[in-house]
Input
Amino acid sequence: MIRTLTESDRKQVLDYLYKDQNYNIFPIGDIEKFGFDQDFQTVYGEFNEKGEYLSVFLLYRENAIYYSHLNHFNHEYLEIFKQHHFEIINGKSELIELLKPHLVDFDIKKTYFCQAKKITAEIPSNTQDVMVLTTKYDCERLYDLLADIEEFSITRKSKEDFVEGKLKSISMGITLYLEDDGKIVSTVATTAETTKSAMVVAVGTAKPYRKKGYASKLMLALMDYYINGKGKDLCLFYDNPEAGKIYLRLGFEYLGLWDMCVRKK
Output
């Protein structure tokens, strides 16, 4: 049976998702922060005859995520898919493999999933220039940086939509950046922060400023903030093996593969 979840399901669904908390950081963060009564978020659960969870499907704005502790996909979800026009759907690679026949309008990218519980590099002492994004102006400058980095495909959104969404998501994590001559030139952020962990996203540096240690400096500042300061783990995805070497050197450990599926233009 598949049904829409409500506030009365909070404890049971979070208990289920926390059994695999690193892979479920997005749905855990969304449920802890926004619950079940928002017009931009819907959560579905699948149960067996004993009332035990078999899978969870969460929609947050234009994003969707599917999770099951089994190698399992119930085709009844396809009717739910038709009801929601999501632009992005994510999940463990072995689960997305089951969905692939139904994602013909999506480009699917495999990424490496890793986690950091400790820091294995020296934290820079000179972090006075590391800034925290807080204002609309900061968000506008961040858009300008990300729009120039092809991997982000940020121009799928208008600047106004990006700024609005970023301001709303500030409470779900933190965004750090370095600037030069009034422009943001390097950034790293977290989202989906839960009581135990946070997801690292949007690690990027403008081309003229690469290979200067900016990304490593920001990552170490972020790791110090979470691991040492808040006692929380960090997770991230990467698809660039060279970038992966940096993360592994700083303290991240490889856990598995994760698929990101983006609707074709």
In short: Helices lie at 10-18, 25-34, 77-83, 93-99, 136-147, 159-169, 214-228, 241-250. The chain has two domains: 2-104, 116-263. Residues 20 and 69 are 8 Å apart (CA to CA).
